[in-house]
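Justification of resources, computational component.

The compute hours requested in this renewal are based largely on the per-chain cost of generating structure records like the one below. Each record pairs the submitted sequence with a full structure-token output. That output is archived, and it is also reused by downstream analysis tasks.
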Amino acid sequence: MNLQDMEVYPEHECTYRLCGLAAALLLALALALTAVTVRDDVVAAQFNRMMQSFYRFSADRGLYVEDVIVEGNRRTSYDDLIAALNFSENESILGIDIEQLQRQIEQLTWVRRCVVKRSFFPNNVLVHIEERKVQAVWQYQGRYYPVDTEGNVIEVEDFEPDAPVLVLTGEGAPQHLTELMEVLNTDEELAGRVKAAVYVSNRRWNLIFDNVNHGVVVKLPEKNFAEAYQKIALLNKRQGIFKRKLTSLDVRYRNKVIVDIDKSAEDMMFKR
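The structure output for this chain reads:
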């Protein structure tokens, strides 16, 4: 075949060459990145082995964890804390990972926050923990679960409160505890008389005052329940409404309050 008879497409040839060059460059870049990664992994592994040798050397020379001092634990046992730290025998005090230890301890049930520090001469590890504060107990499926101030349910087998706390019932009650407490605490005197709170149909609250079993039930609305609570507080201050023989107050309606009177008290009034 004569070269003069061949058809030449210069624009197609240029495109093919550019594609080939781009593919070659990408392959070279991938190989370079792989080489750097392998090199960095090798260097990191060598550095890690060197540091581990140094930590063992320092521990053999006396720089090992001798004791663990814990502060702030009332419900968290010392044994559980030691198990969470998981120190080996003659653990190098230089080699411990402070942040990792804090994360391990904060996985314990009652621990809200933890700070771990080294203390040289003597070689002690100081652990200061802040435990969860119980705001209420949630009655659910025949059991009582403590609930902290952030509305988190604390999963424990048995719980005995140190002092009387608010009793919650109803699906979803713990998740809405924080907003409820913000409203209740606008009148501290009245808040101290709320003994139980029932979250009704996962949308609104009933409050039980003075006695869990025989107290006055206050029915709050789904919306603007803070305003309704202020109405109750105002009625209590002006008229002493909780001094009367009532069984319930319904403040779900904007322009009226529905009151149920204790029937036994009503019968006594008629007998007089």
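The helical segments are 10-60, 78-85, 98-105, 177-184, 188-191, 225-239, 263-271. The first helix runs from residue 10 to 60.
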